[in-house]
Amino acid sequence: MRKQGLKDTETTMQTFSFIGSDKNAGKTTALKFVYKGLWEETKGERPICLTSLGINGEDVDTYENRPKPLIFIKRDTCFITASEHLEKLAGMYEVLHNFTPPDFRKLYVMARSLSDIKIILEGPNSKEDIFWMKKIIKSVLPESYLLIDGSIDRQFLAHPAISDAFYFAVLVSSRKEQLAKARDLLLTLSIPVCHRKDKIFLRSALKEYTKSLFFDEKHQVSYHGRQIPFLDVELKNICLKFRDRYSSLYLNGALTKSLFTFLAPFDKLNIILDNFTLYHNVAVQYADEKPFRPNIFLLYPVKVKRIFLKQEAALNFLPVPEKIPVCNLFRENIDEIGIGKEYRS
Predict the structure, then answer these.
(1) Going by DSSP bridges, is the β-strand pair 145-149/14-20 parallel, antiparallel, or unpaired?
(2) What 3-state class would DSSP assign to 300?
(3) How many other CB atoms are there within 10 angstroms of residue 149's CB atom?
(4) How many CB atoms lie within 10 A of CB 254?
(5) Do 27 and 114 reside in the same domain of the chain?
(6) Domain check: are 163 and 208 in the same one?
(7) pLDDT of 183-196, one tens digit each?
(8) What CATH code is carried by the domain that includes residue 270?
(9) 249: containing domain
């Protein structure tokens, strides 16, 4: 079926992805809250579809060693999950579409609930599968909201063809590692978008296989890389060769600690990351040891609807941009937060 193609029609379908700074950051709780608000706002007049990248969390909580709750959905809610999760729900849903092998790794079912039910969400977790899945959803539910229980390590979620906007769940913990992850995630929101001329150039120059692109101020390309950037020896040689001239480096691969260390001295270099997830795993405090001289930009901006905090320790300073709404997930009455305007274009 994929080989035959599927017309990608213009619709008002909107996709919101949910990302957590760490395990147990409250990501699924945030999804439930947003789902409830959309349900109350739309009053069933606009379809809502829920799914997940893989299973919506492990069966057992990693830190607290207790079973995780199922997702409760109301009647007439659409969802996508693996067929094995529907074995005990016979007669409680209507099938809208089957995502079948070999196009997908396993059988996934898009359905509409016929009553209030509790369910495990499970969807495909590769970029190609999500792209294809979205095209089918658009054809079946063209005016819908699609909510994806996502993951920070699935970098393709940040592609504008997949997610229209994000909700962040941030864990404020006494654990040093977890707090660093939270700050890293929030710092990505302050990275500026690249210059308009660079954006136009990149959109015409990039290929499906592009992992890196090194070019000068006149957009003359010196290197077009297909290899993961931090493993690409030739890319590093090009950076060294042209370190004394003003240049730009597009990266479609994580800015790892080793790559961060290598690029740190290049004061005439602009780094353009494809999306914010590529910066997430850089330890921010490392910059204090060795100043990072290149300028960092994003090709695709970060569109954040709301940040949900899960506070387990005293709240220290967090780099949260002023214009983004913040909710302390378990210390505020989230039912009182107005959400109507938030969902309107």
Answers:
(1) parallel
(2) coil
(3) 25
(4) 20
(5) yes
(6) no
(7) 777 888 889 999 99
(8) 3.40.140
(9) 196-298
